[in-house]
Amino acid sequence: MTRLLFYLILISALLTNCGSKRVLTDDLTVFRYNESKGIASLDPAYARNQTLIWPVNQLFNGLVQMDDSLAVQPCIAHSWSVANNGLSYTFHLRNDVVFHDSEAFPDSVGRTVTAHDFEYSFSRILDPQTASPGTWIFEKLDFGADHPRGFKAENDSTFVIWLKEPFIPFLGILTMPYCCVVPREAASHFGNDFGRNPVGTGPFMFKLWREDEKLILVKNPRYFERDETGEALPYLDAVSISFIKDKQSEFLEFMKGNLDFLNAIHPSYKDVLLTRSGELMPEFNGRFKLITQAYLNTEYLGFLCDTSLLTAKESPVSSVFVRKAINYGFDRVKMMKYLRNNLGTPALSGFVPEGLPSYSPETVKGYYYNPDTARFFLAKAGYPGGAGLPPILLTTTSDYLDLCEYIQFELSVVGIKIEIEVATGASFRNKVANSNLTFFRGSWIADYPDAENYLSLFYSPNFSPAGPNTTHFSNNSYDSLYRLSLQTLNPVERYALYQEMDKKLIENAAVVPLFYDKVIRFIPENLSGLGSNPLNLLTLKRVKFRN
Q1: What is the tens place of the pLDDT at every residue in 87-144?
Q2: How far is the CA of 1 from the CAs of 4, 5, 174, 237, in angstroms?
Q3: Strand duo 151-155 + 527-528: pairing
Q4: Which listed CATH number (1.50.10.150, 2.50.20.20, 3.40.50.620, 3.40.190.10) goes with 23-245+530-545?
Q5: Which strand (E) or helix (H) includes residue 217?
Q6: pLDDT at residue 20 above 60?
């Protein structure tokens, strides 16, 4: 069958298939998932959230990649070395990686990737005209006299990056989509439309995009990776992404067999699939598989700690004793069991979530439910039994209203009155970033798998809106430990510093850790090779269906 005929048959089947039949024509297989939030661009320069990262991950590759154990593995670079005490990284590239075929190339045939393509791609991220939200990934680069960009293609197969100071998580950062390689020819040819006409090196190639209806990616027949037996990847013939906005409709499509993947679970139908203990309902055994594991996402409530701001100074939460009373005043274990079917771990340690090697609930003792201790700290703050304590406003989005109402009720028992305000996503984020909220619901999903990514949220030079420190927590001892951790190459010593920082966050009650999230995936019983990882990356190159 010719490639053109293959694609014509495949696209026709994808656009018309409404049933649950897996084999579309002959032995062609397609993996179907839904993206309820829609996809704005397939340009890796703008892949800042999961919605965009997932499809970009199928289309593009970088120097290195992350495996399911969060270990950095070779990708387009087959090897690398680190020298000068962690200040220089030298990558040696494969010579068998080619860009997808595109009209941007002579004769529409993709060419071989070289180190100069990475030099171009990294420069493109830093170019103000690109306006990429990923410029921060290169903030550690050393712009020296002989390498003014901080990186350089020494030749076609050697790429070097220089840092101004050692930064242990840097290799992990290079696995992010921002660092994927793109061809200059395609970026120039398509201009601002490159995000709708992506050209990469990934296991799947862009084929068709119908607005608000369907996005189709097809197998890359020249993909360079192979499995352990030498078989070419990917196994699938195509990926079909739909854009059903309603979560209930998405759920029904999965139940009918029209989708092959359900990520997370909406509260409105969690009891259909899951028991109270978070296991798959017995009636679905043999039909679906449930995949769960630690997810690098901490859900929390944040306090505005900056008393130089009038809003914070006049709020009761300016008192560390009130903040501690709130932390002791509700039962996280019960909250997770009844409101989240135990799909998450109660945050009884610090801010750093489980799933990271420095996470240690034995070392970092967090808050637990103790109403008497909550009352003790209320009295110490000058509000015995809650007398004289004004209502405290907690602002959240609708997705977390049930948790906030639960906490509201629990805290009322110890004498703390909470008023809840529900804000929309954009308005909420703007208020948090600009320090307009004294008590707010927050979450932090790791950009890269290192506790530094979490602890940087409380480093005082990172005050929002310019940085991620939305609580405006400031502590000289904490800042000193943070700076020292950046220079500590020994992982055991660095983890100990991370734990000391986490203890200081607990000691100062800068936040109310709620729970450490879990990756929740539902797939058909006959699907294999999807895997799971603490970053919740979607990797489809090894997915197979059993007939």
Answers
A1: 999 999 999 999 999 999 999 999 999 999 999 999 999 999 999 999 999 999 998 8
A2: 8, 7, 39, 14
A3: unpaired
A4: 3.40.190.10
A5: strand 214-219
A6: no
The pLDDT of residue 267: 74
Please check whether residue 296 is in contact with residue 535, taking contact to mean a CB–CB distance below 8 angstroms: yes
In angstroms, rounded to a whole number, what is the distance separating the alpha carbons of residues 67 and 74? 10
Question: What are the start-end ranges of the H helices in 278-400?
Answer: 310-313, 320-328, 332-339, 371-380
Is 34 buried (19+), middle (13-18) or exposed (0-12) by CB count in 10 A?
buried
As given in the structure block, the two tokens for residue 59 are 């289309």
Question: Which residue has tokens 């006049």?
Answer: 314
Could you give the CA distance from residue 94 to residue 224 in angstroms, rounded to a whole number?
9
| The amino acid at 56 | V
Return the pLDDT at 12: 52
d(CA 66, CA 97): 18
Assign 3 a pLDDT band (cuts: 50, 70, 90).
very low
Interaxial angle between packed helices 491-508 and 476-487, expressed in degrees from 0 to 180 and rounded to the nearest 10: 160
- Strands annotated E in 377-503: 392-396, 418-422, 439-445
Which residues partner with 444 through β-bridges? 298
35/250 Cα distance (integer angstroms): 9
Res. 22 pLDDT band, cuts 50 70 90: very low
CA distance linking residue 322 with residue 328, whole number of Å: 10
For the chain, the straight-line distance linking the first and the last C-alpha, in angstroms and rounded, comes to: 22
Contact yes or no for 341/278 (Cβ under 8 A): yes
**Angle in degrees, 0-180, between the axes of helices 371-380 and 320-328, rounded to the nearest 10:** 170
Beta bridge partners of 515: 299, 346
pTM for the model: 0.86
How big is the CA angle at 92 (ends 91 and 94), to the nearest 5 degrees? Answer: 130
Residues 528-538, mean pLDDT to the nearest whole number = 92
Backbone φ and ψ for 441, nearest 5 degrees, come out as -80, 135
In angstroms, rounded to a whole number, what is the distance separating the alpha carbons of residues 74 and 226? Answer: 13
> Which of 176, 149, 159 lies closest to 72, judged by CA?
176
Percent of the chain as helix, strand, coil, to the nearest 5:
35, 20, 45
User: What are the structure tokens assigned to 419, written together?
Assistant: 């008023």
Identity of the amino acid at 172: G
Structure tokens that stand for 422 in this block: 């529900």
Q: Do 315 and 438 form a contact (C-beta atoms < 8 A)?
A: yes
Cβ atoms of 343 and 292 within 8 Å: the answer is yes
Domain map (residue ranges) of the chain: 23-245+530-545, 295-519
CB-based contact 517:353 (threshold 8 Å)? yes
Tokens read off for 76 = 């387009």
Considering the four listed CATH numbers 3.40.718.10, 3.40.30.10, 3.10.105.10, 3.40.1260.10, the one that applies to the domain covering 295-519 is: 3.10.105.10
